[in-house]
Amino acid sequence: MAGEHPGTPNTGHWRLSLPVFQAFRDDRPKEEKWELIDGRPTMMPPPTLIHQRICKNINRLLDDQLARVRPDWAADGEVGLLLSGDDKYNPEPDVTVIDRDVEIGQIYANRFYAVVEVLSPNDKEWALEAKIGYYTRHEHCIAVMFIEQARMACRIWSRGADDGWSETLIDDPAARLVFPVIGDFGALSDGYRHTPLTA
Predict the structure, then answer these.
(1) 70 C-beta neighbours (distance < 10 Å), count
(2) What is the Cα–Cα distance from 60 to 100, expressed in whole angstroms?
């Protein structure tokens, strides 16, 4: 998730509009990955191999479950989100559940149902809180998961029938991962297959 580039100002007084951010990002070297979080351009650290394994595992678990219960949805990696009327955010969650049908040439998703972020030691608290606020404001989002890569644990925010949100900490490897509508898509330990945490 979010890590700041050392040379990037990141104070409450420094903001970019979406068009300015996109022009800035497009001018940066291709190996750099930038997100706009609450108007702040934020460079993501290079992913670790464990990060990539967790992403792949969660993506597969969600896709397998979606094929059973919501075949009109699909889990995809690093999908850029761009919601109409909000020019302060342009994040790319590690895994996002979106509509299966997409258009040729489509770059961004403007509707999503669940997101998963694999946490990094470089994450800033302000960015995590801003992302939670952004994801849970989206009318179609039903679940958000932040999963750690240094230990076997995650937090899941779930939308209830009354549109309220509840937060659950999961740190038992055998505990089940459950999203509203999507249901049970595996054990916490399944998200860590082929990593040192399950060796």
Answers:
(1) 17
(2) 15
Where is 129: in which H helix or E strand? helix 125-137
Q: List the one residue out of 170, 196, 194 whose CA is nearest residue 184.
A: 170
Cα four-point dihedral sign 5, 10, 14, 20: positive
| Domains in the chain with CATH codes | 47-198 (3.90.1570.10)
* Strands annotated E in the chain: 33-37, 40-44, 73-77, 80-81, 95-99, 108-109, 114-118, 143-147, 154-159, 165-170, 176-179, 183-187
N- to C-terminal Cα separation, the chain: 25
Per-residue pLDDT of the chain (199 residues; tens, 9 = 90+): 443 332 333 434 467 777 788 788 888 887 778 888 888 888 888 889 999 999 999 999 999 999 999 999 999 998 888 877 777 887 889 999 999 999 998 888 989 999 999 998 888 888 899 999 999 999 999 999 999 999 999 999 999 988 899 999 999 999 999 999 999 999 999 999 999 998 6
Rg (CA), the chain: 16
Distance in angstroms (rounded) separating the CA atoms of residues 112 and 106: 14
Q: How far apart are CA 77 and CA 184, in angstroms?
A: 20
Non-local (6+) Cβ contacts of 128 within 8 A are 1, 2, 119, 146
DSSP reduced 3-state for 82:
coil
